[in-house]
Specification:
Chain lengths: 285, 269, 455
């Protein structure tokens, strides 16, 4: 009875169609190649170039900023919402869950198109601002060098929150009602109850939520591609977009592959750290 | 448990506000889809937009392709994930940690990183523009997640369940399908729905892997509207509705089962 | 039993290493450089396409837009009628998608017979360098293309065999339609301002100020996609920089500079337009298509843009929509960005080269020009003759004819280097939004240009 036989079919497909191409990407990153014709071996040259590449550094910085919108904010809001739903015995819970989760099920291309229209100078957001008498704040949100990245981030926030909330709700669902009853007999309010009971019991879910959303944040491509193409200037460019742009527009497949490898390493590193912290806590309890 | 009236009202206010926030972009696109096309002045709703978008984007064929690709991806990826998850979740074997981390890596690899090498290697094999080229990279991605998910699910089963089956002399395969899978069905259904959704919504892989457009899926139909010189907000939105509607219908039909499964599945972690 | 899994793991590991070894042995792309441009040259046998036997001709194009698509559908039907032995299998997709895909597809074995390839160095230039396109010179002789097309049009599809020179040398494609960038305007808006169409750049600049003072938005630009600003800056540049120099810069040929006073003046004027609201509050936050839609609904006096917008805008604005070439350039003659639609080329590995050449010949023939005009497009040839009798299309046909006969059709700036589309698009956005100074952006342009012509 060898476990390897069970893993083998999955590993074959996975290895052939994901690991192997990844290795090939690593290999491509050592060449100077326009995507066709002959290639030239340059060793670590593409990586060395990235060190001095301001645009690449900006892209990484933007991706880290997006983590705030994709992961941290949804976690905070998701915790509050989940705590309310767990404790509050809200009627229509099913309805709210469905509605709040809805953003997750729609194709990103479609999501991007919708938000793109909302952020436009004549879009819904500006209409609302003008109706509130805040007309001077109205602008083309995706064209403002300082606000374009937060605007893209808010789409991520909109996307992630439902997923995070449901994950946390799952964790809180396991908390026995007795615990809450006991806390209330002790006179605990909603806030103390949250920090004493709800929060500690969902550490594992927090880890899962963070892992999933940080990956989503760092892999952001479709949104940037459809909404801003990395602009204005390079204000919203992210590593995945750089991969695409370098490979297809600039015809620098080697450099594109190098960015892809750095991105993969970055995603992997952040998540290993989070998982480690998460598992230690789980073991410790 | 009793909750104060003030708190209750506040809860509802927060929930309603947030629900509105989640819904309004979806409503925006639905309304735009039924709004007038450029230059059209008659009052709506303009249901013909949907028909126009359907025709221009050739969505009949595109939706069929999407369905076939999704069916293939979910079937194969689910089977492989259950097998692998069974090994990782219930057995101890040398190298399991390393192998598992290898699968975990797959969750984090951006599709952009692998499509270029995949394209060239599959083309050498003459496989581009086939359903296999579109489906298998996505199967690999789904297997990475599925294995991660099923491992967590199977790990959380009471250990004596598997042991008892082993003592009864049930073989590995039999234990898997008779003992391990049945209590995990909600979780399996959940991961199936997730895989279906991701495959349905995928954009980059079918774009690159099917250069001749024979296996282009529904989201790519949107691309035909977004050429350099052509775009009409109403038609783009209508195409968006066509792409999003099937998945929303599936979600609404399965939501109870889906959300329950999701909550139970995540709770195993 | 315990050893068994370990050997299996070793096996896996070994297989992995062996795989890695195989991998590192084969570099991406072709290991042996293909002799540049040598995929071409052999004189074709002069054959009647009707005698080629049954042929399935695979065609990829990007003519998804109304009038262009209609024209091609009609042309293909006529072509298939003329040569019943040839069946055209056409795939059309958006410009950006096709562009991304062609670079992947051309290196393969499964290539189309005819494909639209952008003239730019980043596209056609790269493919020529890699020997992936057929040199059409022999077919030009066979079909008489050099008599059919003016030299100025053909120069935009000519590269030297090694692709170092753009504008001379072998022939790699033929365009079907004409394009010209100019100024759309609303006649009613001009009347309300009590103004005439401007005859000089000074008039134009003064008119913009007048419009602004009257509370109108002087010009409309939607630049979220980055490339639309190129169509505004190009004509403006000709007010300051000699057209000859712009051609040099735009085609990426050595000997010019982006950082001289004339270019700085042009870029500073462009920056002023951006930062002082001549394009409204946020051109960088508005899309290309909604921008012209807004123009048709009454926003703005002028819309700097390409002739391809005319059909859709005319449908809304009717007679109110007018078009003019930009005022005469610094040398006193008309000069503006424009030229031809995306040319049709033949991949070096195409299976049916002769039939492909016949197809290209057919869709660029005199008869084809008529069909294109009938369907509302602007043919690249016989433009003056086929001009409609009134409306904005008449303005456009006349402008194209005058500029191409007497003035200079300036290349799109993104033709210049493989990366210039990105450099210019990003830089112009930064100038418009006030993120970077005119000098800094021009320094970026210069760096890109010099890196290319120097290396």
């Amino acid at each position: 009875m060898t476990p390897y036989l069970y893993v083998l079919p999955a590993f074959l497909v996975y290895g052939l169609f994901l690991l192997y191409p990844l290795i090939r990407a690593g290999q491509f990153s050592l060449y100077d190649w326009p995507g066709f014709g002959p290639s030239e071996f340059v060793g670590p040259g593409n990586y060395v170039d990235l060190l001095g590449d301001r645009r690449f550094r900006d892209a990484v910085g933007h991706a880290l900023t997006l983590i705030v919108f994709y992961s941290i904010l949804p976690l905070v809001v998701g915790l509050v919402l989940a705590a309310i739903l767990r404790r509050g015995r809200v009627r229509g819970l099913g309805f709210f869950r469905v509605v709040i989760f809805m953003p997750q099920v729609i194709a990103l291309v479609v999501v991007a198109v919708a938000w793109h229209q909302i952020y436009s100078p004549t879009g819904l957001l500006n209409d609302v601002l003008r109706a509130l008498g805040l007309g001077e704040l109205a602008r083309g949100w995706l064209g403002d060098p300082n606000l374009a990245l937060p605007a893209v981030g808010m789409i991520g926030f909109w996307l992630s929150t439902g997923l995070v909330m449901l994950l946390l709700l799952a964790g809180m669902g396991r908390i026995p009602n007795d615990l809450y009853e006991a806390a209330r007999l002790d006179g605990a309010g909603p806030v103390r109850e949250f920090f004493a009971i709800s929060l500690p019991s969902v550490k594992a879910e927090i880890t899962t939520a963070l892992v999933l959303t940080i990956i989503a944040a760092l892999k952001t491509f479709d949104l940037v591609y459809v909404t801003t193409s990395g602009g204005p200037g390079t204000a919203t460019t992210v590593p995945s977009y750089e991969v695409y742009n370098r490979a297809f527009n600039l015809k620098e497949v080697g450099s594109a592959s190098a960015v892809a490898i750095v991105l993969t390493v970055l995603v992997f590193g952040i998540n290993v750290v989070i998982s480690r912290i998460g598992e230690e806590r789980v073991v410790g309890r | 448990m009793r909750v104060g009236t003030g708190e209750k009202v506040l809860n509802y206010v927060i929930l309603v506000l947030f629900a509105a926030y989640a819904l309004f972009p979806i409503l925006t696109i639905a309304l735009t889809a039924l709004g007038p096309q450029n230059g059209v002045t008659e009052p709506g709703p303009h249901w013909t937009n949907i028909a126009d978008a359907w025709r221009i984007g050739d969505f009949g064929a595109a939706l069929t392709r999407s369905l076939l690709v999704a069916a293939l991806v979910v079937t194969v990826a689910l089977t492989l994930s259950i097998l692998a998850g069974y090994a990782f979740g219930t057995m101890r074997f040398p190298g399991s940690t390393v192998l598992f981390y290898l699968f975990l890596l797959g969750l984090m690899v951006p599709a952009e990183a692998i499509v270029i090498p995949l394209f060239f290697d599959l083309r050498t094999l003459g496989l581009t523009d086939t359903i296999w080229a579109v489906a298998f990279p996505q199967i690999a991605q789904s297997v990475a997640f599925g294995t991660f998910w099923m491992r967590a699910q199977f790990r959380a089963l009471p250990p004596n369940l598997v042991e008892a089956a082993a003592i009864d002399g049930a073989g590995g395969m039999r234990t898997l399908w008779r003992v391990v899978v049945p209590p995990s069905l909600p979780s399996i259904a959940t991961v199936a729905v997730l895989m279906f959704m991701w495959t349905w919504n995928e954009f980059l892989i079918p774009l690159i892997m099917s250069p001749g457009a024979q296996w282009r899926t529904a989201p790519l139909g949107l691309a035909i509207f977004k050429g350099q010189y052509t775009a009409d907000n109403a038609l783009i939105a209508a195409a968006g509705v066509i792409i999003a509607a099937p998945i929303i219908v599936v979600f609404l039909l399965l939501q109870r089962y889906f959300i329950t499964g999701m909550l139970e599945g995540a709770a195993q972690e | 039993m315990k050893l068994h899994p370990i050997t299996r793991r070793r096996l896996l590991l070994g297989a992995g290493l062996a795989g890695a070894a195989v991998v590192s042995a084969c570099a991406p792309g072709e290991s042996v450089p293909s002799a540049s441009g040598s995929a071409t040259g052999a004189a074709p046998e002069v054959t009647d396409p009707a005698e080629l036997g049954d042929v399935e001709l695979v065609v990829w194009d990007q003519e998804v837009r109304g009038s262009q698509n209609d024209a091609l559908v009609a042309l293909i039907a006529a072509f298939e009628e003329k040569y019943p032995n040839i069946t055209v299998n056409r795939t059309s997709q958006s410009f950006d998608d096709l562009k991304a895909q062609v670079s992947l597809a051309l290196s393969g074995n499964d290539v189309p017979d005819v494909v639209q390839v952008n003239n730019a160095r980043g596209d056609m230039g790269q493919f020529v360098k890699a020997g992936q396109l057929v040199d059409l010179t022999p077919y030009a002789a066979q079909y008489g293309w050099e008599d059919r097309f003016p030299a100025s049009v053909l120069s935009k599809v000519r590269y030297s065999g090694d692709a170092t020179t753009f504008g001379e040398g072998n022939l790699y494609g033929l365009p079907q339609t004409g394009e010209i960038v100019g100024l759309f305007y609303s006649q009613k808006k001009l009347d309300a301002l009590g103004a005439e169409a401007p005859a000089t750049w000074e008039d134009y600049l003064a008119l913009l100020d007048e419009a602004k003072a009257a509370g109108e938005q002087p010009m409309v630009l939607g630049n979220i996609e980055k490339w639309p600003a190129l169509h505004v800056f190009g004509p403006l540049q000709a007010h300051y920089v000699e057209p000859e120099t712009i051609v040099q810069l735009g085609m990426g040929n050595a000997g010019a500079t982006w950082t001289d006073e004339a270019n700085v003046a042009a870029m500073e004027q462009f920056a002023t337009w951006g930062t002082e609201g001549y394009f409204g509050t946020s051109p960088n936050g508005l899309d290309y298509d909604p921008a012209w839609t807004e123009f048709t609904q009454g926003t703005g006096v002028f819309l700097p843009g390409g002739s391809w917008l005319a059909t859709d805008m005319e449908a809304v604005m009717g007679e109110d929509l007018r078009f003019m070439p930009p005022p005469p350039a610094v040398d006193g003659k008309l000069a503006t960005t424009g030229g031809t639609g995306i040319p049709f080329s033949i991949p070096a590995k195409a299976k049916n080269v002769a039939a492909a050449a016949a197809y290209i010949d057919f869709i660029t023939s005199e008869e084809a020009m008529q069909i294109i005009a009938d369907n509302g497009g602007m043919p690249v040839l016989r433009t003056a003759e086929l001009a409609p009798e009134s409306g904005v299309q008449k303005d456009i046909y006349e402008a194209f004819d005058t500029v191409s006969q007497e003035g200079t059709l300036l290349p799109y700036l993104d033709y210049a280097t493989p990366t210039f589309s990105d450099t210019a698009g990003t830089g112009l956005q930064e100038v418009l939004g006030g993120q970077k100074s005119a000098q800094d952006v021009l320094a970026d342009f210069e760096a890109d240009y010099q890196a290319f012509v120097g290396g």
